[in-house]
């Protein structure tokens, strides 16, 4: 996985990708299984904590305000999708395994590639940021 240059954020990204890898490598874990429910719950907590930590970095790294706002909006959109997915599943909604994997991949991998990599351009100005290299 690519890095943004902040050790704590890069570790969190690696942990999120690890959860995605576990889900992808276990075909028995599907949206109507208890294992999926447990993984989704754990993933939601990880994503929420990660976003809180990342937003602290974003507030202090010197990134332009509009870019920070766009990043925050992306976090909100993911958390909204996560909440809707949980509500849909609780209400008996059906979701294929592949659709679930695609959605979770977007939350993690696509978000990092589209938004988080921009942090690397501003890390030197971030308070307490530690380059990973």
Keywords:
single chain, 133 residues, mainly alpha, Four Helix Bundle (Hemerythrin (Met), subunit A), 68% helix, disordered C terminus
Give an account of the 3D structure.
The chain is mainly alpha-helical and 133 residues long. It has a single domain, classed as Up-down Bundle (Four Helix Bundle (Hemerythrin (Met), subunit A)), CATH 1.20.120. It is built from 4 helices and no strands. It has helices at residues 7-25, 34-60, 65-90, 97-114. Helix 1 runs antiparallel to helix 2 (34-60) and helix 2 packs antiparallel against helix 3 (65-90). It is elongated. It starts with 6 loop residues before the first helix and ends in a 19-residue tail after the last helix.
Specify the CATH architecture.
Up-down Bundle
Which fold name fills CATH's third level, the topology? Four Helix Bundle (Hemerythrin (Met), subunit A)
The CATH homologous superfamily is termed Hemerythrin-like
Radius of gyration: 16 Å
Q: What's the domain count?
A: 1
**Ends distance:** 14 Å
CATH class category label:
Mainly Alpha
* Annotation, overall tally of beta strands: 0
Percent of residues in beta strands? under 5%
Largest sheet: none
- Derived from helix and strand composition plus strand pairing, the structural class reads mainly alpha
Mean pLDDT rating:
88
Q: Give the SSE order as H and E letters.
A: HHHH
- Overall shape: it is elongated
Q: What portion of residues is helical?
A: 55-70%
Number of helical segments? Answer: 4
User: Uncertain runs with pLDDT below 50, 5 residues or more?
Assistant: 125-133
């Amino acid at each position: 996985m690519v890095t943004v240059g902040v050790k704590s954020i890069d570790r969190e990204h690696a942990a999120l990708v690890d959860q995605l890898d576990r889900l992808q490598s276990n075909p028995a874990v599907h949206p109507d299984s208890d294992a999926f429910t447990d993984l989704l719950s754990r993933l939601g907590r990880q994503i929420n904590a990660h976003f809180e930590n990342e937003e602290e970095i974003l507030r202090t790294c010197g990134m332009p305000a509009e870019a920070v706002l766009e990043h925050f909006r992306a976090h909100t959109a993911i958390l909204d999708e996560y909440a809707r997915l949980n509500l849909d599943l609780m209400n008996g909604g059906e979701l294929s395994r592949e659709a679930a994997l695609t959605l979770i991949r977007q939350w993690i991998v696509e978000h990092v590639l589209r938004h988080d990599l921009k942090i690397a351009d501003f890390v030197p100005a971030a308070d307490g940021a530690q380059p990973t290299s």
